[in-house]
Amino acid sequence: MAASTLDELERQFFRSLNAWAEPLARSGVLAPGPYHSGLVLVEVKGRLTGESHRVPLIGTRVGDLLIVSTLRGNRSHWIRNLEADSTLRYWLHGSERSGRAIVINTRGCSDRLEGESPAVRAIASFLAPATLAGWAFAIVTPIAGE
Fold first, then answer.
1. What CATH number is given to the structural domain containing 88?
2. Burial class (CB in 10 A: 0-12, 13-18, 19+), 70
3. What total number of domains does the chain contain?
4. What is d(CA 61, CA 73) in angstroms, rounded to the nearest whole number?
5. Is 21 helix (H, G, I), strand (E, B) or coil?
6. The pTM is what?
7. CA–CA gap between residue 79 and residue 103 (Å, rounded)
8. Beta bridge partners of 31
9. How many Cβ atoms from other residues are within 10 Å of residue 84's Cβ?
10. Strand residue runs (E) in 27-122
11. Domain of 134?
């Protein structure tokens, strides 16, 4: 099977899965509690179109931070979109929130950590080795007052 056919099958699979999971993520059912994982909905702006794209993801809360990840690494469009524009909206426990993300992937993240909290720097340092296996992460910091 050609690579482009596999890519298209993968895209179709994730679109179908996302269509099923998005209402659950938006409602807050299965949402992560403090210091454990669950389902969240993330909305990013498309880097090429400027259109909003929503993706249900597994997220882990660490205090007021949210960590989301993908095994698909840099092939995930939501990761590439966040690299272009780090602002996002996300739904946690049925509530919409605004945030800013720091992406950690094979292209690194050290240049984006200046001025970040010790907690963000520690989490980024902990997650960085997993990018060698192809993973990508976003550490989401809530925007104060929103």
1. 2.30.110.10
2. buried
3. 1
4. 20
5. helix
6. 0.84
7. 7
8. none
9. 12
10. 37-45, 52-62, 65-70, 87-92, 95-104
11. 3-142
